[in-house]
Backbone:
């Protein structure tokens, strides 16, 4: 029934003379995400038209849902500007999509100024042709449940019922590279998603402590990275797996219980800072939400961040838990995050963690610990794998270390 998917860009007017850079990036992503489908893509200045051919339009839309920078898309029928033909096409859509009494209005945009009618006149003339043949429609121009959109452009007139909202934001990778500190929890993958939606290309880092923590916790992180890779510009994300066991054991042995989480996070940030600098990441992305737990008070965030020079961005800083869970559900990471396997930040949670740690106190504790060689070793032995949205990654194998599992199941790259 539909001829095209009509795609509208986000608010690129904010980018002034740089609009062409953003548009080119989005267009490349559209081509990449729709690769393999039997379609034709026509890029215009302000719109993109995807000719559906034999493809189900919903299959195309499913792929567009992973592209940042798109405002909306619609399934449209196309016809020359002829009021009778437009009404005929509109009625075909209405009878297919609207089965019950529905409040309705027509909204016309006349882009082709050669047409002698105004937009309001076109809507009025079409109403007379449509309403007499669609008894289920109830005119309500103020609070419609459905709107029939008519766009009369220079080439053709496009008719559609729905504007499906896109992800909005800006195209992924346009804003530079960043490193997401990815745990197995709910918050950090949502933080990574929001970073991509603002135009950042992401890679992920995870601190694994097997066998202190189960290998399943690493599988969680791989699965979360795969979910995020669907939104990446190339449908793939590099994941750094840091062997944190020795540092973990040192901290548990040498640090007062109340400061364990603070010192552990400072070590993680030191490692993330080294890897970020070595791989040209402009920022570290954290899943912190202010005040959500003891380690996310302002004092904690200041004390932990004190050890790095790389910019730290916290997309979830002002979100509450319900908002974060809602986003996790939207990007399909919630069920993975809820798997009952702890990472190194949660497996040994102190009973009375310090709520307002001090930088000078943390520095004093670390001066008593010989950690630098172990930290450097963790950096040098960090594994990295490229997670592709189209591939399977199952590393769980009884008796395997993470490194062995990666080499056996995936192949270390």
Residues:
């Amino acid at each position: 029934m539909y001829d095209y998917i009509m795609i509208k860009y986000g608010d690129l007017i904010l980018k002034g003379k740089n609009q062409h850079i953003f548009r080119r990036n989005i267009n490349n992503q559209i081509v990449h995400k729709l690769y393999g489908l039997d379609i034709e893509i026509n890029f215009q200045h302000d719109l993109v038209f995807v000719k559906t051919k034999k493809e189900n339009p919903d299959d195309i839309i499913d792929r567009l849902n992973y592209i940042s920078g798109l405002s909306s898309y619609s399934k449209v029928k196309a016809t020359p500007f002829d009021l009778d033909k437009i009404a005929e096409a509109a009625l075909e859509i209405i009878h297919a999509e609207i089965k019950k009494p529905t409040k309705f209005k027509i909204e016309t945009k006349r882009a082709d100024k050669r047409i002698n009618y105004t937009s309001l006149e076109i809507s009025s003339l079409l109403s007379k042709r449509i309403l007499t043949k669609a008894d289920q429609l109830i005119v309500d121009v103020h609070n419609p449940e459905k709107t029939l959109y008519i766009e009369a452009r220079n080439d053709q007139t496009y008719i559609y019922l729905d504007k499906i909202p896109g992800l909005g934001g800006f195209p992924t990778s346009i804003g530079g590279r960043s490193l997401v500190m990815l745990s197995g929890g709910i918050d950090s993958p949502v933080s990574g998603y929001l970073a991509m939606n603002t135009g950042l290309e992401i890679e992920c880092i995870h601190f694994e402590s097997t066998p202190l923590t189960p290998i399943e916790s690493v599988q969680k992180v791989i699965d979360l990275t795969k979910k995020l890779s669907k939104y990446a510009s190339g449908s793939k994300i590099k994941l750094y797996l840091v062997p944190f066991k020795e540092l973990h054991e040192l901290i548990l042995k040498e640090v007062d219980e109340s400061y364990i989480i603070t010192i552990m996070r400072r070590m993680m940030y030191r490692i993330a800072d080294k890897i970020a600098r070595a791989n040209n990441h402009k920022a570290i992305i954290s899943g912190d939400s202010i005040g959500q737990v003891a380690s996310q008070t302002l004092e904690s965030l200041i004390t932990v961040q004190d050890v790095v020079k790389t910019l730290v961005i916290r997309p979830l800083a002002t979100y509450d838990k319900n908002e974060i869970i809602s986003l996790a559900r939207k990007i399909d990471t919630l069920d993975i995050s809820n798997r009952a396997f702890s990472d190194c930040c949660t497996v040994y949670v102190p009973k009375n963690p310090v709520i307002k740690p001090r930088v000078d106190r943390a520095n004093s504790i670390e001066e008593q610990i010989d950690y630098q060689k172990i930290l450097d070793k963790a950096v040098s032995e960090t594994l990295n794998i490229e997670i592709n949205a189209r591939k399977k990654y199952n590393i769980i194998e009884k008796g395997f270390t993470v490194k062995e599992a990666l080499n056996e199941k995936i192949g270390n790259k």
